[in-house]
Write a structure and sequence with these properties.
16 helices, 21 strands, Oligo-1,6-glucosidase, domain 2, 15% strand, 6-stranded antiparallel sheet, 3 domains, 572 residues, globular, TIM Barrel, alpha/beta, binds 1-deoxynojirimycin
Length: 572
């Protein structure tokens, strides 16, 4: 154990240099993820919609974020919360119309917010015109060639073509009337596209053009690591969980994730975006990869200059609340992204994972669960929120781009008491209830304590029931309240912008002991912001010439002592 001298070593090595000059917006942006079904409902049907979003954009302006990313709002049967797209060029009536989208984007842009939208290229909905045509056509047809149809194994072809499993549980193959099977890495309502097919490639470039022409600032690309499957579609045995957890197994060991061929797809997308950016230099466009890829060196391949601008840092999200692990992940992320010149991103919550206010309230000995149910061990809500605030305060001091998920700024926990009857995530069904799935982090947003549906919409309808605590944490309970999580986020985001932390360099500070993460964010002019997080049980005195406290995730103890699970920013 390092002796706890509490005399921080100010000249610790710089692991990441500051950005030269004035970086483009996306390199340092704080982006707020909106899950459209659950943010704001304008018409009282219990489902969020685009006009609802438009009417609440001022709130985001006041929060101080730079951009919004919207999960899918396209025509969809909502078998997977809209990630089953039936028409990539239209808005589902539950969310509104294309005109509503335009009005939303116009208002956002008027407020100085960039608009990033989701694109889902790995699979369509089974209701997409292409898939309907494929079902109506014969084996071997041009229509079937856009998807991954195969004959089955066994004498009657009644066994699936290989042993692949769907991410949501159960086999990854579904049989159709004429006996062929089609691949679906997710729900069987989400047939995988065949990215060896030129029509598929051309179609998605056209979809990107459609939205670029409507003025969007960029795309978040769903399952960016899954589009290409290994030739021959070989069967594959997933190794036991503990081997995977130790990170000893690169993602591309499987025949359907992170295949080298995906890197032949994205340069054309990047060229298209670069072309739009070149024509409107004050409007640079961006794409961010959702790629669950390990190790980070493989992830960095997606971030080479002719591919994605950014990629979500899921290693950071999945890191346990342990100082050594966190330090290692941050260090490794910055170093591997620096090799390809891409900013590093930071994220703690999204619509696919247990919210960090709940996740960090669970014992920190195993990876996060996929959802929490009423019969599972329950998170410690007080500890979870305290750590969540500390984690966010640590995150927003880091250089690069950061992603926030709606509601985390209120400190919302997951809803863990959702009854089986209301759960909609396909995971819940296809794993035969062994995994609760993601509904708990998708519960509609509470705007106002006293209003029906806590102000989510004008009626008392809410597509998932809201826990009582959402009333106590509602936006109107925190607005202007000193010490509230909402005001903490506002302060952090404001200081991050004022001190240009996104563009800063990072140097580790030693001397606080093994249970502390401490770094200096240093900008190009040498201005330092020191960030110290105490992940241990014992309070840590903040000795040395660290500067004055400018924000803290919770109250400090007497004489500049940092309590457990607290982060502080200091500056001279
Ligand atoms: C990742 C999305 O974030 C998730 O919500 C979805 O279920 C899968 N991709 C499949 O599209």
């Amino acid at each position: 154990m390092t002796p706890q001298t509490n005399e921080p070593h100010h000249d610790a090595a710089i692991v990441h240099p500051p950005e030269p000059g004035d970086p483009l917006w996306w390199r340092t942006a704080v982006t707020y993820q909106i899950y459209p079904r659950s943010w704001a409902d304008s018409d009282g049907d219990g489902l969020g919609d685009l006009p609802g979003i438009t009417s609440h954009l001022d709130y985001l302006r006041a929060l101080g974020v730079d951009a919004i990313w919207l999960s899918p709002f396209y025509t969809s049967a909502q078998r997977d919360g809209g990630y089953d797209v039936a028409d990539y060029r239209n808005v589902d009536p539950i969310f509104g119309t294309l005109a509503d989208f335009d009005a939303m984007a116009e208002k956002a842009h008027g407020l100085g917010l960039r608009v990033v939208i989701d694109v889902v290229p790995n699979h369509t909905s089974n209701l997409h015109a292409w898939f309907r045509a494929a079902l109506a056509a014969q084996a071997g047809s041009r229509e079937r060639a856009r998807y991954i149809f195969r004959d089955g194994r066994g004498p009657d072809g009644d066994e699936p073509p290989n042993n692949w499993r769907s991410v949501f549980g159960g086999p990854a193959w579904q049989r159709v009337d004429d006996g062929q099977w089609y691949l679906h890495l997710f729900d069987y309502h989400q047939p995988d596209l065949n990215w060896d097919n030129d029509e598929v490639r051309a179609e998605f470039l056209d979809v990107l053009r459609f939205w670029l022409d409507r003025g969007v600032d960029g795309f978040r690309v769903d399952v960016a690591h899954g589009l290409v499957k290994q030739a021959g579609l070989p069967s594959w045995q997933m190794p036991p969980a503990d081997l995977r957890l130790e990170g000893t197994l690169p993602t591309n060991a499987s025949p359907y994730w992170d295949q080298n061929g995906v890197h032949e797809i994205y340069p054309a997308w990047r060229a298209l975006l670069d072309d739009y950016s070149a024509r409107t230099p004050d409007h640079p466009r961006v794409m961010v990869a959702e790629a669950w890829v390990q190790p980070l060196e493989r992830m960095a391949l997606y971030l080479r200059p002719d591919e994605f601008h950014l990629g979500f840092n899921f290693d950071f999200l999945e890191c346990l609340w342990r100082a050594t692990d966190l330090r290692a992940v941050i260090d490794h992320s910055l170093r591997s992204n620096d090799l390809v010149g891409a900013p590093t991103t930071w994220v703690l919550s999204n619509h696919d994972v247990v919210r960090h206010a709940s996740r960090l309230g669970l014992p920190q000995e195993r990876p996060r669960p996929n959802g929490i149910g009423p019969d599972d061990p329950q998170p410690d809500a007080v500890l979870g929120l305290r750590r969540a605030r500390a984690a966010t305060t640590l995150m927003l001091g880091l250089p690069g781009a950061a992603y926030l998920y709606q509601g985390e700024e209120l400190g919302l926990p997951d809803a863990t008491d959702l009854p089986a009857a209301v759960r909609q995530d396909p995971t819940f069904r296809f794993t035969e209830v062994s995994e609760m799935g993601r509904d708990g982090c998708r519960v509609p947003f509470p705007w106002s304590r006293e209003a029906p549906s806590f102000g989510f919409g004008p009626s008392d309808r809410s597509w998932l029931p809201q826990p009582t605590v959402y009333g106590e944490l509602a936006e109107d309970q925190q607005e202007g309240v000193d010490g509230s999580t909402l005001e903490l986020y506002r302060t952090l985001i404001r200081l991050r912008a004022e001190r240009r932390l996104g563009a800063g360099g990072l140097a580790w500070l030693d001397g606080f002991g093994d249970e502390v993460v401490a770094y200096a964010n240093v900008d190009g002019a040498g201005r330092r912001t020191v960030v110290v997080t105490n992940l241990g049980a014992e309070p840590v005195p903040l000795k040395g010439d660290l500067g004055e406290v400018i924000v803290a995730s919770g109250p400090l103890l007497e004489s500049r002592t940092l309590p457990a699970d607290t982060t502080v920013w200091l500056a001279r």
